[in-house]
Amino acid sequence: xxxxxxxxxxxxxxxxxxxxxxxxxxxxxxxxxxxxxxxxxxxxxxxxxxxxxxxxxxxxxxxxxxxxxxxxxxxxxxxxxxxxxxxxxxxxxxxxxxxxxxxxxxxxxxxxxxxxxxxxxxxxxxxxxxxxxxxxxxxxxxxxxxxxxxxxxxxxxxxxxxxxxxxxxxxxxxxxxxxxxxxxxxxxxxxxxxxxxxxxxxxxxxxxxxxxxxxxxxxxxxxxxxxxxxxxxxxxxxxxxxxxxxxxxxxxxxxxxxxxxxxxxxxxxxxxxxxxxxxxxxxxxxxxxxxxxxxxxxxxxxxxxxxxxxxxxxxxxxxxxxxxxxxxxxxxxxxxxxxxxxxxxxxxxxxxxxxxxxxxxxxxxxxxxxxxxxxxxxxxxxxxxxxxxxxxxxxxxxxxxxxxxxxxxxxxxxxxxxxxxxxxxxxxxxxxxxxxxxxxxxxxxxxxxxxxxxxxxxxxxxxxxxxxxxxxxxxxxxxxxxxxxxxxxxxxxxxxxxxxxxxxxxxxxxxxxxxxxxxxxxxxxxxxxxxxxxxxxxxxxxxxxxxxxxxxxxxxxxxxxxxxxxxxxxxxxxxxxxxxxxxxx
Length: 585
What we know:
With 585 residues, the chain is α+β, with helices and mostly antiparallel strands. It is built from 16 helices and eleven strands. Strand 8 and strand 9 (283-287) form a beta hairpin. Pfam families: EF-hand_SWAP70_N, PH.
């Protein structure tokens, strides 16, 4: 019932649109009253004058829109419709309301009756959405059927050129554009009007009247047993036979159901190409004009009975439904593809943001490494300056010691000066040890930096491998996406190449940091050697140094620098020892 309602709504929509003269989407109530009354008449629905007047009573609301008319149409007309009305009469009524407003007869090569049939076929093939249109696939299907009915060859290239010039802003043609397309003879060149009219009538009979096959055959009577020529019309559940093909004088029906069957009979009684139709209560003997016609009729009747057993609709309706489902499937696949493309685009943007974040992190790491290198170089320069200063001081001290040894008269003063210089040397040695400790800390810092760079490099390599695997997975997902994603993959490869170059730069910086670490290590070894030499020198002169202990109660000597650290006896003893060592040297 839902399919019948949809078919009726399409014809009613044309009528409602024709009554909307100013294209405002609304129709006056008086016109809708007349339309509703006519619909009840042709659809054989009982009139309800009270409901009609109540729904369309005069008030200040003005004209009624299509949406406002639909509740009344559904409740009081369409829900009461039974399949007992004349569909042609119903379509003819709706056609009469809209034809004068929209059809330009002077430009058409077909009659108004043919245009009406095309209008009905349009309602059958159009999409179930408003405003009604027929999509290019259904246009091609209809034009092919017409071409086959005219006995011509289908020109696919001509239709492809027509599709190329098709307005991209529209999804299909309106009914009046379709009538103009068929009526202007663009796809029926070389055919006369009668041939085109017969082709339209044949397609109309098949698609609208459900005529699966028709033609003249001989039928054997049940009472007189005589053979009479009749015009047979095969429909999904009935075979009707008439006196002639004008269908005015109907002689009878053969009701078909799933229990019927059709059999071929041998020639007899001077009749050839015989076959038998067995029904529940009757059998019918029929003679075709030739063997080909006989086989065609047997096959058509057998297919009809088989469809009745399966409960399937007629072939053309089932094919129409399959085409609609295929278009819905293709549309869903396109929407899914668009959704996947959007997801890929979002994923690509996220990857770009991640790569930009990685690049910034790498730049920050490089800046930090440069800052650390700058600090290390500054520390190295300071250490070199400090070591140079120490060497200069050592030379100065050696010169002073030589001058003190040369001057025997000031030997004590030189000795005291030497002690003070050695004390300074101890302080400097401690500073050198502190510098060595600081250098080792710098070495540890450089090692940690190197370890962090290695860790970051490993992490980035893992991320790059992951991205690379994801990129390969996306490439393997579908071959159809390969071409569309080629540009995106090139961008990713470029970003990947840049990241690899950055990793190589990090590797180079890590090697440079390692070389610098080796240089600092060597300098530390040199500093340690120098410290050891200082210790050796101090050990050679440790005889000149003594720990500070409580002094003697005896009077101390007074020197230019204050009270002496030795008594007179100790001083004489150390002077003798010093002279002995001097003599042995």
